[in-house]
Design a protein that fits this description.
The protein is built from ten helices and five strands; from the N terminus they run βαββαβαβααααααα. It has 196 residues and is α/β, with parallel strands linked by helices. The chain has two domains: 117 residues, 3-Layer(aba) Sandwich (Rossmann fold), CATH 3.40.50; 67 residues, Arc Repressor Mutant, subunit A, CATH 1.10.10.10. A five-stranded parallel β-sheet has the order 2-1-3-4-5, sandwiched between helices. Helix 7 crosses helix 10 and helix 8 packs across helix 9. It starts with a strand and ends with a helix.
Length: 196
């Protein structure tokens, strides 16, 4: 099995070097030629622009064994990578046994994606096809809670939200606690996903 890792991060390079017992070839540039089917290609996403990852998709075929490693894995990037033809997506610094399992699966022509991201993706898809489930839960929010939720989805911090509505940060936190409870979500990320 041959493994090629694309990264410009010395930290990631050092980490990956300690994960595998087999020789790893490193490159700081993404390939532009069609990928060899007998090589497993791991791409460190933060080392490259979204456009270069997208262009990588143009040379990925059904036989290519490509995984993308993200420092902060997310549903949108995972789905984009799947659309590009990537067969695996993971946290850049996940445990050694998970990396070894991922590489074995890729070598056998299979795929690997983080179970928690798949669960979130399926939950979002289920909500999308089940009609107005989310809309009815949003109706349980007060007008101010809806405004705070919308501000969170726009990326505002608690301080910015407090300034925008002339309320204290403590009040913003209280609103968020109530929103999370009413929508049955755990955190800001869950709120953003629900609202998107």
């Amino acid at each position: 099995m041959k493994l090629k890792v694309y990264t410009s991060s010395s930290t990631f390079k050092q980490f990956i070097g300690g994960v595998f017992d087999l020789p790893v070839e490193f490159s700081s540039k993404l390939p532009v030629e069609p990928l060899q089917a007998d090589v497993i290609h791991l791409v460190h996403a933060p080392s490259f622009t979204e456009e270069s990852l997208q262009s990588l998709g143009e040379i990925i075929d059904d036989k290519a064994k490509v995984g993308v490693c993200a420092d902060n894995p997310g549903i949108k990037q995972m789905l984009d990578c799947i659309q590009y033809g990537v067969k695996a997506y993971c946290n850049s610094f996940m445990q050694t046994q998970h990396y070894q399992h991922l590489v074995r699966l890729l070598d056998n022509g299979q795929s690997w994606f983080p179970p928690h991201l798949l669960e979130q993706t399926f939950a979002l898809a289920h909500r999308a096809v089940s009609g107005n489930y989310l809309d009815s839960r949003l109706e349980s929010l007060t007008n101010r809670e809806k405004e705070v939720a919308k501000s969170v989805s726009e990326g505002l911090t608690n301080r910015q939200i407090a300034d925008q509505f002339s309320i204290s940060e403590r009040t913003v936190k209280t609103h968020l606690t109530n929103i999370f409870k009413k929508l049955q979500i755990k955190d800001r990320v869950g709120l953003v996903l629900h609202l998107k």
